[in-house]
């Protein structure tokens, strides 16, 4: 297989998908799979495109194929876990994300995803521990700052530390939508409604 060419095609498809050109991205990946039917990375990217189109069953099939061809592919386990979480299959999601983390322990985004799952299922302290672990290895991880800040401020009433993390997320990425929303919620709770409104309007 021509790995550099293969990766170049997938990178182009990801760029198209991020622009919202999902049909074009899908055609590009499907063309690649005609000649490389066992390309796990391509099946995984195709699954993510299906997921963005709201085609959950097709996405799931793609992730299954990716793992059939490469059982130790961490990203495919991760994407399968995110899909299961979106479908409310929390046990399945946790198993997949834990497997992804075991295969790629240096990837902080997988631990962040697992922390979000714990938060959504009411396991707040475990979520906080995971977000803190992410930030120990990746202090510039804006998502983890935003997530940790929200849990601390809104769920555990550790307002000042929570705000500090959300503010750091916004320093790292001023356009971070979740951090803007989280900060707006906190400002509104503090009675600073005008500031909250201005932040929402950005």
Summarize the structure.
The chain is mainly α.
Task: Supply the number of helical segments.
Answer: 12
pLDDT average, as an integer?
Answer: 93
How many extended strands? 0
Categorize the overall geometry. globular
Question: Pairing-aware structural class of the strands and helices?
Answer: mainly alpha
How are helices and strands ordered from N to C? HHHHHHHHHHHH
Strand content: under 5%
Helix content: over 70%
Largest sheet: none
Low-pLDDT stretches: none
Oligomer classification? single chain
Distance between the termini: 46 Å
Gyration radius, to the nearest Å?
19 Å
Describe this structure in words.
This protein is mainly α and 202 residues long. It contains 12 helices and no strands. α3 packs antiparallel against α4 (56-69) and α7 packs parallel to α9 (142-155). The mean pLDDT is 93. It starts with a helix and ends with a helix. It is globular and about 60 Å long.
Write the layout of secondary structure elements.
Layout: H1 3-18, H2 22-35, H3 40-52, H4 56-69, H5 74-86, H6 90-103, H7 108-120, H8 124-137, H9 142-155, H10 159-172, H11 177-189, H12 193-200
Helix pairs in contact: 1-2, 1-3, 2-3, 3-4, 3-5, 4-5, 5-6, 6-7, 7-8, 7-9, 8-9, 9-10, 9-11, 10-11, 11-12
């Amino acid at each position: 297989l021509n790995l550099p060419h293969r990766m170049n095609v997938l990178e182009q498809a990801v760029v198209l998908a991020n622009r919202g050109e999902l049909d074009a991205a899908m055609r590009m990946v499907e063309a690649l799979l005609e000649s490389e039917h066992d390309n796990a990375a391509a099946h995984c990217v195709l699954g993510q495109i299906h997921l963005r189109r709201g085609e959950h069953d097709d996405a799931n099939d793609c992730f299954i194929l990716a793992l059939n061809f490469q059982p130790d592919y961490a990203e495919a386990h991760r994407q399968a876990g995110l899909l299961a979480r979106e479908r409310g299959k929390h046990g399945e999601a946790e198993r997949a994300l834990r497997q992804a983390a075991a295969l790629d322990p240096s990837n902080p985004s997988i631990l962040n995803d697992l922390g979000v799952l714990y938060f959504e299922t009411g396991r707040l302290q475990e979520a906080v521990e995971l977000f803190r672990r992410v930030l120990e290895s990746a202090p510039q991880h804006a998502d983890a700052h935003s997530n940790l800040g929200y849990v601390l401020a809104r769920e555990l009433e550790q307002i000042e530390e929570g705000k500090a993390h959300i503010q750091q997320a916004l320093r790292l990425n001023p356009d971070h939508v979740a951090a803007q929303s989280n900060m707006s919620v906190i400002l509104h709770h503090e009675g600073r409604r005008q500031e909250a409104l201005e932040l929402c309007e950005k």
